[in-house]
Amino acid sequence: MARKYFGTDGVRGLVGVAPITPDFVMRLGYAAGKVLAKTNAASGRPTVLIGKDTRISGYMLESALEAGFNAAGVDVMLAGPMPTPAVAYLTRALRLSAGVVISASHNPFQDNGIKFFSEHGTKLPDAVEHEIETMIDQPMECVPAEKLGRAKRLEDAKGRYIEFCKSTFPNELDLRGLRIVLDCAHGAAYHIAPHVFHELGAEVIAIGNKPNGFNINDGFGATAPKAMAAAVLEHRADLGIALDGDADRLVMCDGAGRIYNGDELLYVMVRDRMMTGPVAGAVGTLMTNMALEVAFKELGIGFARAKVGDRYVLEVMKENGWLFGGEGSGHLLALDKHTTGDGIVSALQVLSALKRSGKSLDKCCKELTLYPQTLINVRVPAGFDWTKHPDMVAEKEAVEAELGDTGRVLIRASGTEPLIRVMVEAKNAQVAESTARRIANKVPA
């Protein structure tokens, strides 16, 4: 089913430009509320939890969503600034009908978005999103006054989530003796993540923890990890942890400032789980480095690739009955700990692996050497289809013929921005870069 409004991670775009406008978001809340009211008819009035990141537009969109839900007869609980995975956890823990996050994740503050979680703390199935989209295009009405929804604030959301995160770290271990730089990207975890690592015993040096509504992801966080690496060197820390604006991504660095992406961190997590029991397999994406696939094969671990996007990684994990998956961008999933990707929880899994092994991060990754990758993002008009441009197709085929079995080419459209992503992976870094640029240069001006 083609989706009109929903992308790979909810509805997202530039604030003030359709669909991220107050009137549309109110209709989205109403439509989602009507769908939820229908599916929860037997259990009485549905209740949804709304969380948001630190963007200035969050206030406006929160009010619009609340009005839409209330008009549909749905009660609302407001969590305020809260990581995306926190909303997933709280929705499940409080037995609510759904969770909603107002966030554009790693995008700049001018963007925002709306994403939903089911009562199980998982992303909504495509069929439910399609039903909501169908309802959006229907006239918006309002239930009778006596059936209107109410709104209240969830006062203990922060404390509940901090305790949940700590519960995913082994009881017999602690973080005493570790000095950690923690980059919160001026995002939703700014008032949560430092407490988690501090309460487990680490000395925490927090950066990117002063949001002002406009600085989310700006030079800090998982999409700009050099700030974390520089702070690690400045403070002579043991490790660096960088989250993104809604704290569902994780990038780390060691004491020397060397940055580790999601592929490497997934390798550390899976190797650690192998110490306590068999691991059937793990899921990556079309962008996952070939070296990880080869390494898992040598360890006897199954490996599958999903479309790019954590929702698709999760789908393949469930199809195979596997617990672990992730993306190089830092979305990591460990279904024995959480129902969705969680930057804080993932960092705790890596830290527990280091503690159990007695090894540093660089030594845990010693047996994994990533193949050089070049990724070039090219801005294109909305709806651009590279497969209909013969010059791009021909150049891609030429590069693939040159690489043979020593590399691969992937071209895909971003699910959240008007971009074409050209990726070439090869054993030689110069070959990867030059061939990727050849393809990218064929994008029509």
UniProtKB/TrEMBL annotation:
A Gene Ontology annotation in the biological process aspect, one of them, is: peptidoglycan biosynthetic process
Catalytic center residues: 105
| Signal sequence range | none
Q: Which UniProt keywords apply?
A: Isomerase, Magnesium, Metal-binding, Phosphoprotein
Question: Which Pfam family, giving just one, matches this sequence?
Answer: PGM_PMM_IV
Catalysed reaction equations from the record: alpha-D-glucosamine 1-phosphate = D-glucosamine 6-phosphate
Pull one GO CC term from this UniProt entry.
cytosol
Superkingdom as given in the UniProt entry: Bacteria
Q: What does this protein do?
A: Catalyzes the conversion of glucosamine-6-phosphate to glucosamine-1-phosphate.
Q: What is this protein called?
A: Phosphoglucosamine mutase
Lineage per the UniProt record: Bacteria, Pseudomonadati, Pseudomonadota, Betaproteobacteria, Burkholderiales
